[in-house]
């Protein structure tokens, strides 16, 4: 008998307003357990989310079944981070039932916005890397690609940021506190993951040397699945996140000793593995728990991938034709040793065969060139935590170096750079080298970044394997970042060019000719103004500050990091403040500086920069001599939800990292797509954004990556000389250093001033200051000509089509994964 229901029989699949309304009520009463009169907004959110989830489930099963029936090649995206944000609007929008839902809520006397706002923001990531993974999930599902996300179901996501006296204070982010209506717990999908113990050598049945990992501690990885709704609701993919569960087997030694509680304590502690996301962005701290998290989710994912493969196949030689595994940075790179272990130790493959399969299956994305951010685990730690993996890594290394040595004619320095082991100081495993060696393709995330990879971190590997490195410039999903976040602009766009851009963003190029249409320009401005009003209200709610909607919204939103140079922006803010005070009769273009971003809790300099922004804001915003001409706001707790409010309202997008240091950036893409003009350096994807939007429609300033490189190679520069020759820079720095913004603690900013002067100004803030101010002036002058500004803003939106993550994911699919779209067969009615 066919166990599947027929769609029309099931009320909970109905997509019309009445059916939705009945479902909301039914869920409220029978699952949330509340009467409509007593229900809170959160109760309604849960009811609505569960009702929406119902409408996804059978298409989800259809999709999974289609992949299975076609034995399609799947891509597995392994990422320690998924910065997803809220899912309600996303699901409704991709299903095409936003209006129906709004009306159904209306009939219940509820506001859609209130219900939407009751959803916590799923912040299982730090910043760009985790958001990229989330955009890729949306794009894979929207293109019908058989893609799975694998990660960790952190109980606590990225910390909540608050400001107390202007200082960042971190609070736990309890996104699961009231339950998560989107996920399905899979208590039966459970894999053991081992740590510690030792390796035993033995002879296998044919007398070959073999190894087993014994006396290890065990934790179980339990799956939670979240459906990933593609645009149009045709394909529903799966994000599988692992949660740590204690094993049921007790240490009977303890038990017999009467140390029952001690045994139970150990069990409880093992579940800490998936408790909390590490809040560091770009720098690693080398903590054992982090290594265990990386191995935990990687091992569980690989076991799951092999189980799925073995449903159809009895030997492993076809694995690379059925599974592509993408490593999002080196965090899951231990998977290379783990797959070798599973194939060789558990499935008795020969080493060389296992290595060929492993390399053909894995591909690796590099996200940073910053040396302090390249993962390198102490050999002693891996030996202790993952003893069998350490042996495997040594074996991979020995075979590789032996082969290389034959051709390297005694260049030992080169061999030691290629080695998986860094022998300088405490011996460490270079995870980037392991990822490179164990992958058939290695990619950077922008054209510049990929070139720099070839010249710097992977120069020797690139010589050795010249076809392995390739570029895949990042992208963003236009569904979340234009359609959902900016209904005003997206509806306007659709009136002119139809809605094809939602699934094919290259079509947005049709807007180019509208840049010269005065009526369209007026409507474009109206949409921007609406978004600016929304942001102004948000700013007032969050900070109490009133900002002028008609000022330039000059926006820098991203993690706080010295290389991203929020300090450069702050110095310009102070210089502008001084100019305005000096020239009160000039008619200034009013400016609102909007900052947002979290600092890693242990990154003292970044936290001091936060305090400085808040201190500058306090002085500037309360100085009547600049009137409304200048406001400075630092919004707390930057996350995806905040980004969705801030980005559509931006006029000017600050992308001002030291050239050569930002791998790609994706915030730059979101802002340009939403009609902000970029002020930026030739760094990361800014280079390609300039090529697409045109050099006339972007404000480029500062040193190039080559110039930065030459300057550093020539022994740097003397920031004191630069400062002395630029009176406005000198004055701004003097104010900071003499306590003009910190009268309560005049020495507070000594470390900042020190870093910019005697510290040598590693990030070249002072070196780029003058040219940055020139570019800022040009932007302010242009803003006076609102027709011309709008024309350029439209050209930005119209020329950003290439930066859709659909394009990025298609490139991965064709050039790295070799996976193809699968059309699920649905027996029910469609969504649109
Ligand atoms: C896009 C995004 C980022 C990345 O921003 P960059 O400017 O590329 O560093 C970080 N955090 C959130 C919440 C984002 O949405």
From TrEMBL:
Q: Which residues form a coiled coil?
A: none
Q: EC no.?
A: 2.4.1.1
Protein's GO biological process: glycogen catabolic process
Source taxon at top rank: Bacteria
Q: PTM N6-(pyridoxal phosphate)lysine: at which residues?
A: 670
A GO MF term = glycogen phosphorylase activity
Pfam families per record = Phosphorylase (PF00343)
The cofactors named for this UniProt entry are:
pyridoxal 5'-phosphate
The similarity comment for this entry is: Belongs to the glycogen phosphorylase family.
Specify the protein name.
Alpha-1,4 glucan phosphorylase
Whose protein is this, by species? Answer: Azospirillum lipoferum (strain 4B)
Gene (UniProt): glgP
């Amino acid at each position: 008998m066919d166990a599947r229901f027929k769609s029309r029989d099931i009320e909970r699949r109905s997509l019309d307003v009445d059916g939705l309304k009945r479902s909301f009520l039914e869920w409220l009463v029978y699952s949330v357990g509340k009467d409509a009169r007593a229900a809170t907004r959160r109760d309604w959110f849960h009811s609505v989310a569960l009702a929406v989830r119902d409408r996804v489930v059978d298409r989800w099963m259809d999709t999974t079944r289609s992949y299975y029936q076609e034995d399609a090649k799947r891509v597995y995206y392994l990422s320690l981070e998924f910065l997803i944000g809220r899912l309600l609007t996303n699901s409704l929008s991709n299903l095409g039932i936003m209006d129906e839902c709004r009306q159904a809520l209306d009939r219940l006397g509820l506001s859609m916005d209130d219900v939407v706002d009751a959803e916590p923001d799923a912040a299982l990531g730090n910043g760009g890397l985790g958001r990229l993974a989330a955009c890729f999930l949306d794009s894979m599902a929207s293109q019908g690609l058989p893609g799975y996300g694998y990660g960790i179901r952190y109980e606590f996501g990225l910390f909540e940021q608050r400001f107390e006296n202007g200082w960042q204070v971190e609070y736990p982010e309890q996104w699961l506190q009231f339950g998560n209506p989107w996920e399905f717990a899979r208590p039966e999908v459970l894999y053991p993951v081992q740590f510690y113990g030792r390796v035993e050598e033995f002879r296998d049945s044919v007398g070959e040397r073999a190894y087993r990992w014994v006396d290890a501690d065990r934790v179980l990885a339990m799956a939670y699945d979240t459906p990933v709704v593609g645009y149009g609701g045709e394909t529903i993919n799966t994000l599988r996140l692992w949660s740590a569960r204690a094993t049921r087997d007790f240490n009977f030694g303890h038990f017999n000793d009467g140390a029952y509680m001690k045994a139970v304590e150990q069990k409880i502690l093992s579940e800490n593995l998936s408790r909390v996301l590490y809040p560091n962005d770009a720098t690693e701290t080398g903590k054992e728990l982090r290594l265990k998290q990386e191995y935990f989710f990687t091992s569980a994912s690989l076991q799951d991938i092999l189980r799925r493969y073995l449903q159809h196949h009895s030997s492993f030689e076809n694995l690379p034709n059925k599974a592509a595994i993408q490593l999002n940075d080196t965090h899951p790179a231990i998977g290379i040793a783990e797959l070798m272990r599973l194939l060789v130790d558990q499935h008795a493959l020969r080493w060389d065969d296992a290595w060929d399969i492993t390399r053909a299956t894995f591909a690796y994305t590099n996200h940073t060139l910053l040396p302090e951010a390249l993962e390198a685990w102490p050999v002693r730690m891996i030996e202790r935590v993952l003893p069998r993996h350490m042996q495997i890594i040594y074996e991979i290394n020995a075979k590789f170096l032996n082969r290389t040595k034959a051709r390297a004619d005694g260049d030992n320095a080169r061999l030691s750079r290629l080695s998986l082991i860094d022998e300088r100081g405490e011996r460490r495993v270079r995870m980037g080298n392991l990822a490179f060696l164990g992958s058939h393709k290695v990619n950077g995330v922008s054209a510049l970044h990929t070139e720099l990879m070839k010249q710097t971190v992977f120069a020797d590997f690139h010589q050795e394997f010249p076809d392995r490195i390739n570029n895949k410039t990042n992208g963003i999903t236009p569904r979340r970042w234009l359609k959902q976040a900016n209904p005003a602009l997206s509806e306007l766009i659709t009136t002119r060019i139809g809605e094809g851009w939602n699934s094919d963003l290259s079509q947005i190029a049709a807007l180019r000719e509208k840049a010269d249409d005065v009526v369209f320009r007026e409507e474009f401005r109206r949409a921007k103004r609406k978004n600016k009003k929304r942001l102004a209200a948000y700013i007032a709610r969050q900070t109490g500050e009133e900002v002028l909607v008609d000022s330039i919204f000059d926006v820098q939103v991203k993690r706080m990091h010295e290389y991203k140079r929020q300090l450069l922006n702050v110095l310009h803010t102070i210089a502008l403040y001084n100019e305005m005070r000096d020239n009160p009769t000039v008619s200034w273009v009013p400016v609102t500086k909007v900052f947002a971003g979290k600092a890693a809790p242990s990154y003292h300099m970044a936290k001091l920069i936060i305090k400085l922004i808040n201190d500058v804001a306090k002085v500037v915003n309360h100085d009547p001599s600049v009137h409304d001409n200048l406001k400075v706001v630092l919004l707390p707790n930057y996350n995806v939800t905040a980004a969705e409010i801030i980005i559509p309202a931006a006029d000017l997008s600050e992308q001002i990292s030291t050239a050569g240091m930002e791998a790609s950036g994706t915030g730059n893409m979101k802002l340009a797509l939403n009609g902000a003009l970029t002020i930026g350096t030739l760094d990361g994807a800014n280079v390609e954004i300039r090529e697409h939007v045109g050099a006339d429609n972007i404000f480029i300033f500062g040193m190039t990556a080559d110039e930065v490189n030459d300057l550093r190679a020539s022994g740097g520069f003397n920031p004191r000389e630069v400062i002395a020759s630029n009176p406005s820079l000198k004055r701004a720095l003097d104010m900071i250093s003499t306590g003009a913004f910190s009268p309560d603690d005049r020495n507070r900013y000594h470390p900042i001033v020190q870093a910019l002067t005697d510290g040598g100004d590693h990030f070249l803030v002072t070196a780029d200051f003058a040219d940055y101010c020139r570019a800022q002036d040009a932007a302010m002058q242009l803003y006076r000509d609102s027709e011309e500004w709008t024309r350029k803003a439209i050209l930005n939106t119209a020329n950003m089509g290439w930066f859709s993550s659909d394009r990025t994911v298609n490139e991965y699919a064709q050039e790295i994964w070799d996976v193809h779209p699968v059309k699920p067969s649905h027996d029910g009615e469609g969504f649109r």
